[in-house]
Amino acid sequence: MSTYNFDYLDELEAEAIHILREVAGQFEKPALLFSGGKDSITLVRLAEKAFRPGKFPFPLVHIDTGHNFEETITYRDQMVERIGEKLIIGSVQESIDQGKVVEQTGKNASRNALQTVTLLDTIAKYQFDACIGGARRDEEKARAKERIFSVRDEFGQWDPKRQRPELWNIYNGKIHKGENIRVFPISNWTELDVWNYIRREKIDLPSIYFSHERDCITRNGQLMAASPFLNMDDEDVVERKQVRFRTVGDMSCTAAVESDATLIDDIISEISASKISERGARLDDKVSEAAMEDRKKGGYF
Amino acid sequence: MNILKFFTAGSVDDGKSTLIGRLLYDTDSILADQLEALQSSNRKNDDGTIDLAILTDGLRAEREQGITIDVAYKYFQTEKRKFIIADTPGHIQYTRNMVTGASTANLAIILIDARNGVVEQTIRHSYIVSLLGIKHVVVCINKMDMVDYSETIYSSIIEKYKILAQQLKLADITYIPVSALKGDNVAQTSENMDWYEGESLLHFLEKVDTDSLDKSQLARMPVQWVVRPQTEELHDYRGYAGRVLSGTFNLNDKVTVLPSGASSTVEKIEFFDQALDAAHAGQSVIIHLKDDVDISRGDSIVNASALPQESKLIEADLCWMDTRALDTSIMYNIQHNSKITKCKISEILHKVDINTLEKHAAEEFKLNDIGRVIVKTADALAFDLYDDNRANGSAILVDPRTNLTVGALMFRAAVE
Ligand SMILES: Nc1nc2c(ncn2[C@@H]2O[C@H](COP(=O)(O)OP(=O)(O)OP(=O)(O)O)[C@@H](O)[C@H]2O)c(=O)[nH]1
Ligand SMILES: [Mg+2]
User: CA A222, A73, A220 angle in degrees (round to 5)?
Assistant: First the structure.
């Protein structure tokens, strides 16, 4: 017998590929939600491993808050070009223009919460029955509770008290009309696993994940990128800092960390030594102890 | 480095969530901002120290009630190993969530409150562990701090448990006296229990060997998806995508495709941009066959010289997981790997009384009932027995009225 070395990254990868293929096999109109962050970039690589040389059996869907880091959008467009797959964009600006949501005001205004409406509208418009996402269970305590195939009702709601049993590696994708399933192939990966995988696979990332100079202000103890999307006033002091981002989301709610890590190896050692969780850099989770659970119940990813 | 997947079981309040919190805390796996959130939480222990259980009790309802309702998955690693933990609920009402957490694990930690000893839920959970064929069991006698770290109490509980283990044919059991709250024998051996000569829980978990989980070396791969690019340059490309459940496929191996029975030979094995000589259990690959056979999702490619069983009538253990009772007059969907077909439960052979572990005849099968049934399927299934091959010997039942997963099946025999 040939020797073979199946380490933990191989195991996580094989599990994720299995899940992606189950989505392909069980649903009529799946979609892969692509945020431009490292987790969804990892999903794209996993989808390539699951379906190449064939095409993806789903389009990529980007819910665009309009408050993006420019680097993310450039990256997204280049990536779509390279892989030759379809991209659908759901625009939060459009939802605002249509009066479906109202822009928040005040100092901590962010479009993060508005995304949910655009997401649900996009799901309804294209009648997606399964949406693949890059959420991981290690990110947050409500996420730690979610199934890999997670049923959402017509209103996008997650009901944590009525989750279906999920046994062995058998995923039940049966739903009623109007419902859909959120699928999380990298549920069992940690932040460090994702970075180790990106290093192993030599996956390109948007430059904002690496150390760079940027104008920042300090808000609620966290470093935020100064941008037209942030409501600033006289009290805000703009400082030039050497920073990088650990997660990539709406510019108005994603905090930077001071860092000199310019290479992926630096990032991995930085995270290994870090005492702060990745979502610690998200203002949206700081609101209350159950912030994430509440948003998920409302249809958030 | 490999991964150990384990879960905690035991009755309500035996300290499962606290134990996991303690493992995470003592291995420095809790980050500063999470710790800060813990400290500011209003759920505290009586002496004002932080309640480690809220690390895994992530839902609002759980924190309010101080119990675990659904499985939480936690991750940590030491220099020796990576761990995936499922913290499962002890409350009988949520047994299905416990089974969810247990089904993917290769080791079970069963907690027993030193003050109460073996109780009904200990028996129920131990029984589920034996049904699910989880080979490694650690029994932690917890809350030793509340019984003055008494060796006598510890010994009398393990004597009782040994009788149960024998009845359940649980083979590989390790006993450890712990205090999840204070940390005794969790990450480090305790000075409060000189009489205990074994190692700490963490130390044990770091080195326990869980390889060769399944005895079966027989090659099996259910086809999940057929890759057909249909482009000009790949006009005739036809690859069968799936995850190898067990055994190994080598190039030129003779294989059989089920249910058609067609035979062929492995021509090529691909993994993304690599061509492989072999595909092993656990790997997700694409297999090409020499002959042009008709294969679609739900079919299996298997070793031609060691076929699985094929039957439309299967004897199986069933855990019922729905509030609506089993209805032997209706059709359910059965999902066995990538295959879905209709089925009926044609007969209830017996139900197991969890207190006495006795089998008795039954008409009804309700939430959390466990017993033996005969499943009659519309299409024949190609399966192995659960004890030989977990992945190819298990299936779920889905109620077509609600789409809920209502039962877990473990195949025990084909009915002639
Ligand atoms: N004194 C003492 N108390 C403990 C110990 N372990 C747990 N407890 C307490 O027992 C109570 C229940 O602990 P949990 O960890 O929530 O119990 P559980 O087994 O997870 O309960 P469920 O998940 O609801 O089944 C809490 O108040 C803990 O602080 C221990 O070793 N010693
Ligand atoms: Mg608990």
Answer: 10
Distance A174 CA to ligand 2 centre (A): 30
User: Are A231 and A107 spatial neighbours (Cβ–Cβ below 8 Å)?
Assistant: yes
* Contact flag A18-B243 (C-beta cutoff 8 Å): yes
B85 and B157 co-located in one domain: yes
Q: Which of B260, B282, B303 is the last residue of a domain?
A: B303
Number of domains in chain B: 3
Size of chain A, expressed as the number of residues it contains: 301
Instruction: Specify whether B37 is located in the same domain as B96.
Output: yes
**Beta-carbon pairs below 8 A across chains A and B:** 175
Tens of pLDDT, residues B161-212: 999 999 999 988 999 999 999 999 999 999 999 999 999 999 999 999 876 5
Ligand at minimal distance from the CA of B11 is 1
Name B286's Cβ contacts closer than 8 Å, sequence gap at least 6: B227, B239, B240, B241, B269, B270, B271
Strands A130-132 and A87-91: unpaired
The C-alpha atoms of residue B100 and residue B94 are separated, in whole angstroms, by 10
B24 and B105 share one domain: yes
- What is the model's pTM? 0.92
CB-based contact B80:B207 (threshold 8 Å): yes
CATH homologous superfamily for the domain A8-193+290-297: HUPs (3.40.50.620)
Q: Are residues B230 and B259 in the same domain?
A: yes
Tokens of B240: 């069968």
CATH code of the domain in which B259 resides: 2.40.30.10
Res B216: pLDDT:
64
Residues of A in contact with B250 (CB under 8 A): 2
B412 touches ligand 1 (CB under 6 Å):
no
Both tokens assigned to B214: 């399944």
Beta-bridged to residue A203, according to DSSP, are none
- Chain A residues with CB inside 8 Å of B394's CB? 167-168, 170
DSSP states of A44-56 as a string? HHHHHHHHTTS--
